[in-house]
């Protein structure tokens, strides 16, 4: 675990300041009464390396247009998340939607013209959904 005065950790964060300024600059952990933990793996949560437990997809940010969505899903099934094709598919100038059906939360009723805005909404909605499950 990192201490507040850990110079190596601070240097690592300073080196990644550009990443920390993006839309995914938080990490919310929800721990239930059985000790099970849920969290949205934002950029910061991954950097904190809080767990080595397996992660499961909670949602998808996908194109609204059916043809683009089919092309997107086929391409993403064939290439790794770190590939040039995957990076290119994230830049498409189309409308995007957030599908949270993998966790039973359905599809957000709003479309986004910018994929990063959709991801912001995805992170917020998932955090709210996971916190609401605990109430």
End-to-end gap: 29 Å
Give the overall shape: globular
The total domain count is 1
Topology, number of strands: 4
Return the structural class.
mainly alpha
The residue ranges in which pLDDT falls below 50 over 5 or more consecutive positions are: 16-23
The value of Rg in angstroms is 17 Å
Q: What is the mean pLDDT?
A: 77
Q: Biggest sheet: strands side by side, in what order?
A: 1-2
List the helices and strands and how they pair.
Blueprint (H helix, E strand, L loop, with lengths): L6 H9 L1 H4 L8 E3 L5 E3 L3 H6 L11 E4 L2 H13 L5 H6 L6 E4 L15 H19 L2
Antiparallel strand pairs: 1-2, 3-4
What tags apply to this protein structure?
6 helices, mainly alpha, 4 strands, two-stranded antiparallel ribbon, two-stranded antiparallel sheet, globular, single chain, 42% helix, 135 residues
